Every structure is written in structure tokens, then in C-alpha cells.
Amino acid sequence: MDADPNRSIRKICIVGGGTAGWMAAALMAEHFKGAMGQIELVESDDIGTIGVGESTVPPFLQLLAKLGVDEQVFVRKVQASFKLGIEFRDWKQKGERYFHPFGTIGAPVDLADFYQLWLKAKAHGYTGALQDFAPAAVMAKNGKFTLPFKAARTPIGGASYALHVDAKRVARFLRTYAEARGVTRTEGIVDDVAVRPDGFVETLILKNGRTVEADFFIDCSGFRSLLIGKALGVGYEDWSHWLLCDRAIAVQTENVGAPAPYTMAEAQDFGWRWRIPLQHRTGNGYVFCSKYLSDDEATATLMSQVEGAPVVKPMVVPFKTGMRERLWDKNVLALGLAGGFIEPLESTAIHLIYRGMDFFFRLLPDRDCDPALQTEYNRRMRTDYEEIRDFIVLHYCTTERDDTAFWRECRDMELPPGLKRKIDLFRVNGSLAEGLDELFRAVSWQSVMEGMGVHPRGYHPLVDRIPFDGVSGQLDHASELLRRMVGDLPTHAQFIAQHCAAEMPEKAA
């Protein structure tokens, strides 16, 4: 039986702007092409956005492509820089560092993943580092950058990249995009929400007396969670027993030197510090556990370590890691902070917004919002949230630090069952239980496991079918070839200057 056209959604209302709201608006404007109902976004200039989500992961570039946005134009407009991965300092032990690269490490050999070949070589005395074979890691180490697809048939072609962005400029860019395609913006603060007898949201009542009706609502109201939390009463699942940090201090500073093509995450006594270099400034923050540190102490610690003069005052961002029990309930879908928050260690907040909209399009409802659609959406999104949660917990629980109560608590925590299974499996021979369409694939898990000292006891037996004579020499040759190729690339700063330098910054960020 064909769908009843009289039940089609005629209007969708987005509550809240910022990155989440305007990303949802832009994606719907592009997908619906003006032919599937009205899109209205309600926000207020009087309510600020957090605007500190400045780092992305490679699928963000898929979002730009889906919107038909020219990447170079976008980089200029939002003063972006390029990101080849994350450098972790002092996580395993003080004084140690490792790199989590985007893209590949080496190339498969016969039936074996490159990591398995490296494990066998290491068992036979090979001393070369795993990241010597990751093109993104080698580029980052040397401050170099090129677009990997420009060198697709070379060892560099296996790299991948994301962007460091100015979150507020991203929201403005997406707003301009969405409004040019028919999205209506309404200025106003939501004062009350009218709910029908069946529990569906019917009307928003704004403080100025205006009412806004819609068939479907997307809650992008941030931590306030006006619709999914307050109006519909969907509970929040707290993950703070696994992720102890619950506050962040954020500050922007002037650049000192050329921007590095990677994010820096440096462990501190009671959390960790980020540094995210853009073209014209650097984002900094201290993510910490308030059980062990006050806001004033965290601010003082951060300000003593940042490079460059501050361009804004430090901002306190309290948060609780976790997610809503349901991200889609009745005719309300929650995106961004309204639906959940996993701390920013692996820069996944914007990705989860994009994924949330992707699954929404796949399961697009009519006005009845069939519960089967909601159930499948919530199942898929929970899988994403839990995958990312477990990957981030991995960075903490495998620490060997015992110099503060914070790190001892991280080291001794009871792990999520799925993460424990994954670590136990990896310790056998480097095997990984990968799920469906995961964000973090084998290279990510291998890089963090190795960086944090989680080593397999052996290697996969299939590697023994590969003739091993001369492998160590071949590995040395491959790493040297990659190093020489990277040496010939432009620096990160040179690449930006040649291809996508931003206009001079506006005085008001």
C-alpha cells in the first residue's frame, strides 16, 4: 500500500541554532529541495552558544560534499586549518607521547593486515615504530601537509584528514547556506511547550507571545534539552562513572608560530588539555574532574600553559557525559548537546550531529512517527554513542599513571563490558571485533592500544604463510621512502597560504 500523502510532514521546526541547529537546517534544505514541507528554526540572539567544538573527524568532509560546498571556500570562510590526527602527551606515563593518525598504516600484505606483519617483525627483533608507516603521522611529525588524493598512487595517498574550525563561524556559514535555500529563522526564546494528549509536541510558545506549530520538532537547545528532556521527560543515562571529567575551561589565544596540522591532547593532573590551531588563533581548553579540582585552579593551570595572548576571557563549560534514553521520542528528535555529550577527546560532537541527521533521513517518518522507525533510529544511534564512549574510555583506563587520585581512579575503574571484551581480544593476537559502520576502525584502535602500552601476546597465525626473509629490510625501505616523500611536501602553513588562506579576521569573533 502506498503511503498516505495526507499524512506527510508539512513542517519541521528546529529549536536552537548553533552548529547543531544550522547543520540540521542546511542538511534538510539540501535533501528536501524545497519540495517536502517548510523548515523553521527558532533561536534567540540573547542565548549564546557554547561554540568551542573546534575539531572534527574525516567524515565531516563528507558533510561538506553532501551539501555541495567547496572545501577551499569553506576553509577560508571559517579560518580552518587541516588535521591529520591527534598527538597524545603524558597519557600512558609522564614524558611519553603517541599519535592517533587518520587514514591507513602501511598496506595489507597477502591476507594479513599490515599491523600483523609489523607484530611478527617486532617479535623477531624489529625496532621500527608502527607510526613510521602511517602517512598522516609522518606528515604531522614534520609539520607537512598535502591533500592525500593528490598523491593517491603513492604511500602518502593512504592518509586522511579532517579540519580544525571556528565553531561560531561554521554556524554562521551553515545559516547563510540554509536561509538561501528557504529555511525560515524566527527570533525568540521558547517559554513553554504545548503537548497533545498523545504526548506529541504541538506548539511552542515564545516569550514574545508568538506561537510556532509544526508536525515534527528537532531539539537543538543544548544542555537545556527543552523538548526531549523537559517537555517529553525522556531520561538521561549518566556515564560519568566511566568518564570522570565533568567540566572544561576554554580560552582562545593568539597564534604563536605556524599552526600545526594536528590536535594536541596533553594529560594533566586531573584531566587533559587541548590545543587546536586555526589560521588566525588557537583554541585551548582544560577538561577536568571537579571532584579533584576547582574552576579557579583549572583556569590558573590552563592559563599558565597556553602560548600566546588570550583574545577572550576563559569560559567555564560544565557537562555530564551520557545520552538520552531515547534520542527520538514521538515527534521530537534530539541532536547535539540536547541528546547527549561524550567529552571532546576524540572530537566526535559534530560527527554525531551529522550521523543523527543521516539516520533521520534514512528513517524519515510521516506525521504519525511510527514507533518502529523510532526504535531502529535509537538502536543505531545508541550503537554509535557507545562505540565512541568505549573508545574514549580506552585512553583513560589503560593509563600507567598513578601520580594523582584522578589517574588511579581511571586506571582502576570497572570497564564497560564491550570495551573489556575488545581489550581482552586484542591482547591475544591483535584481533579486533569491529561492528557495523563504525567511526573508529582498526587503525584507530591499534594506534591507541599501542600508544597506551596494550600489546598483543602474539600475532595472527595467517602471517606465517608470508615468507619472512628480508621483511625487516623491506620495512625499513618502506618507512624511509615515506619519510623522503613527506620531506618534499609543503609545510602546513605553506599549503594553506597557497590554496586556502582565510581573509583577515573580523574584530568580533
UniProtKB/TrEMBL annotation:
Keywords: Oxidoreductase. Coiled coil: none annotated. GO terms for molecular function: oxidoreductase activity. It is an enzyme of class 1 (oxidoreductase). The keyword Iron does not apply. Its EC number is 1.14.19.-. SUPFAM superfamilies: FAD/NAD(P)-binding domain. Pfam families: Trp_halogenase (PF04820). This is Tryptophan halogenase family protein.
